[in-house]
Write a structure and sequence with these properties.
By secondary structure, this protein is an all-alpha fold. The protein has one domain. Helix content is about 75%, strand content about 0%. The radius of gyration is 13 Å and the shape is elongated.
Length: about 55
Amino acid sequence: MAAQPHMTAALDALRTARSELQAALANNGGHRVKAIALIDQAIEETNAGIAASRGD
């Protein structure tokens, strides 16, 4: 199993971005909600990449 420091750092950044978007005002023409959904997808893919490197 190889360490994944960059993937782990990316997860931290994605989670921070998600938190900031959740705290933002809601009237953004739907773009805030879409961005949160895309970040959720990126978090899932990053977790899958980390799992794949572990052989899960």
